[in-house]
Amino acid sequence: MDKTDKIYVAGHRGLVGSAIVRNLKAKGYANIIGRTHRELDLTNQAAVKDFFEKERPDVVVLAAAKVGGINANNTAPADFAYENMQIQCNVIKCAHDYKVKKLLFLGSTCIYPRMAPQPIPEDALLTGPLEETNEAYAIAKIAGLEMCKFFKRQYGDDFISCMPTNLYGPEDNYDLAGSHVMPAMIRKFHEAKQKGSAFVELWGTGAPLREFLYVDDMADACVFLLEQYDGEQHVNIGTGEEVSIRELAETVRMVVGYEGEIRWNSSMPDGTPRKLTDITKLHGLGWYHKVGLKEGVALAYRWFCENVKQARL
Asked: Given 8, 137, 168, 214, which residue is catalytic?
């Protein structure tokens, strides 16, 4: 990429997109554009085509997606499948038609098979059944990854993909009806501390193992790949370190300063039992994460406290 390139970040106000914008600006990329959902509905094919016709971006980062936790995926699977596939098809096809010179598509490690080998290598994709609690989202995102690969293979388009692990940090979604585990814990412990509640209820058993990456580290890896990588296969982005949900809860509770009890509701689903990425490929390219879990949780909680009035609650 050149510093003068016009870079369109789809989803520029979300957790992922806003972090990528921050990283791009810090590295001297000043010509960055974005559109809110109200300004541009990415599920609308004609609107997306008009946008590309007018703006002619040189680089596209496709970070826009319909995302959510177990509850959201379970209750609206058709919406997750349809909206994500519409967004991907419209943006990727227009990137090809309008000769975008580089596109980065962001997947998610939750689209790997439920019982994938651990740590999960990139070639584990499509080798087994998916996790039922996010199957619709996974199928849609797999289609996006494969579409980038096929456009590269058939037309030579420089479309690359990455697979970030579980993310958290500034601009996260704290709505308990649709949030992921980290922001849900931060909000629950914070509100329990404020109210003086005797206990906080968390879903599942606390046994599953997960990997968490601070979102600004993820953004740094994405810009690194935009600058350095042009391969057909997607690249895992993670820390290579895992923690149980129970251990995560204790870390968040400590950072927040909540002293009450944690009660686990084992009648609710745990999701995939273990999910750790194999980041050998990313390390081989020369990128490593910088922010550890405890430091990252503290940064995320500080942002939440400072922005609670405008956070997505």
From this structure: 137
